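Honest question from a wet-lab person: if I give you the sequences of every part of a complex, can you actually get the arrangement of the whole thing, not just the pieces? Trying it with mine:
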Amino acid sequence: MGCSFPVLIVIIIIVLAVGVVSLLSGALGKAIVGDVGLPDIFTVDAPHVQLPAEEIGHIGPITITNTLIASWITIVVLVALAWAVTHRIKLIPSRLQSLLEFAIEWLLNLCTDVAGEKYGRRFFPIITTIFLFVIMNSWLSLVPGFGSITYTVAEHGEEHVMPLLRGANTDINFTLALSIVSFIFVCYFGIRYSRLLFFKQFFNGGRFIRGHGLLFRGKVKAGFGSIGFGIIDMFVGFLELISFFIRLVSFAFRLFGNMLGGEILILMMLFLMPYLLAVPFYGLELLVGAIQALIFGGLTLVFVTMAVTLHEHEEAH
Amino acid sequence: MDKRLAALGMLGVGFFVAGSIILGVVGGNWLDSKLNSEPLWLIVGLLLGIVVAFYGVYAMLRPFLKDKQDKGNS
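Yes, you can. This is the full assembly:
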């Protein structure tokens, strides 16, 4: 290592000092050694966890919540990034440009790998939007100071202090809206490319009806067999229908649960042992944000690919 | 499509099991309150939900199971 000996000593002393202060000022240390009377700025209050997003104000009939403001900021950041890179594209890219080029290229490759050349480019814009929006939401809410800006609302003579910003992924309304977007996206492309097959996977009564026809024509054995398989067909279609709608719920709750859980985890770690213990969990949350974005985008891509390639499965049987 | 990506779809299996059982219970409860036949439809709905859940998981897993069997035989 390039550090000289005195520098190393100073670094070790600083880390030790931070460790001691963080142990003494947190709830964990207070439980072990008791209150040593540190000044107020070192102590951390117990986190106040609230499941629904806090209301900041109203514009007409629309309620403005802190998660909504955070999602606007995400949009602004994404648009600003895109503008900064694309308004003057260089042949030899700058660092920012090559970073975004890498991200976009990687996503395009993912889309064409999964969905094939024909559909990949069509699905790419929406998958990329979902991915970038979710990942930017979760990463922006990890920026230091994001949740520290507070806003006070006087209500019924009481003053409520609430964070002005809160990661949009921690609001069930946002994740539900995003999963509805992906649901409609799957339905639209499924109906457009698979036509009637898209509905046939849910309501598959063909063999059941044909069985009755066979019975009337006197082929009793074949008729009953066909009716039996037809009932199984309809049951499988019913299963598909249920799992299709449960997907909507699972998309929304997976993202919401992971993101809210991460937020609460960091708050609790900050309360238990400030400064030091939260750092590894910040790293973990960076990873979780990226994985959840990848899962949301990737699953949408997988399901839309399944929906448009229904006829291939039909031929394979 | 890549088999590993198809396996990504398995992420929803837990939600499918929970959802189909909850749907059966809620539907049975609703029918009971309409027909005043207390625990009958609740139990029927619960059993139906469990059957749907288990058969659904089996149907989702079947492509992967078949693949493994083919490899084992050859």
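Two things worth pointing out. Residues 12-62 of chain B form one domain. Chain B touches chain A through 19 residues (CB under 8 Å).
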